[in-house]
Automatic annotation (TrEMBL):
Taxon lineage: Bacteria, Pseudomonadati, Pseudomonadota, Alphaproteobacteria, Rhodospirillales
Xref: Pfam families: ABC_tran, BCA_ABC_TP_C
Record keywords: ATP-binding, Nucleotide-binding, Transport
Organism expressing this protein natively: Rhodospira trueperi
MF annotations from Gene Ontology: ATP binding; ATP hydrolysis activity
The protein, known as: Branched-chain amino acid transport system ATP-binding protein
């Protein structure tokens, strides 16, 4: 994969906490416009890798490049400014705030904070800017089909709807690359189907590159362009979904060695 087509490059990333090595020399690239999945057993290092990409963790070794720029030392808010958005494995919504206000938080970093323009901006520009942000948020609300809960307090919603609102807040950033950490965890079949459809549309219609951690192998194999597999912090495989499903190391480490593994791909695995 050439540097010209890669929106993200992870180069030899290792991460250590005391005597525990969470990641060990992991390398992969994600192409602009790609829907890329990272899978592996619990404790394989998937979320640690997401944290290294988003800036919550700084790798012990290795580098992370985004759109050709070395972002290894940048804080999460700086990476957000560059176009990296993210959802979390554990919900991070403001329960006392409305759905609309939670999503508006995702636009906060885009608000101008330029005092050089002084009163002239605040007289005419601020209102126009606020209106544009509101329009963007309303488009996202319509897209994710949550208009009926736009005024509801986030803390009162079902788990599935809260996951959708968190996705909306990440999308509000209008990122070039969105990181989805178990976006379908805890959802029923219908909710998963809806979320899968939204992710595909974000990728294909909104032009967002996607990195997704997900345990539901049926979803991963159905919607991903390529898949990387981690096991004990090491990358043991990378390739097309069909290649991953037939990889002996993946079967041993993650899917099990059962010949019927493909038949059970739609079941959620630990």
């Amino acid at each position: 994969m050439s540097e010209e087509t890669a929106i993200l490059e992870v180069r030899g990333v290792s991460l250590q906490f005391g005597g525990v090595r969470a990641l060990s020399d992991v390398t992969f690239s994600v192409t602009k416009g790609e829907l890329f999945a990272i899978i592996g057993p619990n404790g394989a290092g998937k979320t640690s890798m997401m944290n290294c990409i988003s800036g919550r963790y700084t790798p012990t070794e290795g580098r992370v490049h985004f759109k050709g720029r070395d972002v290894t030392g940048l804080k999460p808010n700086k990476r957000a400014d560059l176009g990296i958005g993210r959802t979390f494995q554990n919900l991070a919504l403001f329960g006392h705030m409305s759905v609309l206000d939670n999503i508006m938080v995702g636009r906060h970093h885009l608000l101008k904070n330029n005092f050089m323009s002084g009163a002239l901006y605040w007289i005419g520009g601020a209102q126009k800017e606020e209106l544009n942000h509101r329009r963007t948020v309303e488009d996202i609300i319509d897209f994710l089909e949550i208009s009926h809960i736009r005024k509801a307090m986030a803390g009162t919603l079902s788990y599935g709807l809260r996951k959708r609102v968190e996705l909306a807040r990440a999308v509000a950033l209008k990122p070039d690359l969105i990181l989805l950490d178990e976006p379908m965890a805890g959802m029923n079949l219908e909710e998963k189907e809806d979320m899968a459809r939204f992710i595909i549309d974000l990728n294909e219609e909104w032009g967002m590159s996607v990195i997704m951690i997900e345990h539901d192998m049926g979803v991963v194999m159905d919607i991903s362009h390529r898949v990387a597999v981690l096991d004990f912090g090491q990358k043991i495989a990378e390739g097309l979904p069909d290649e991953i499903m037939s990889n002996p190391r993946v079967k041993t480490a993650y899917l099990g060695e059962d010949d019927d593994v493909a038949a059970g791909a739609g079941q959620e695995v630990a």
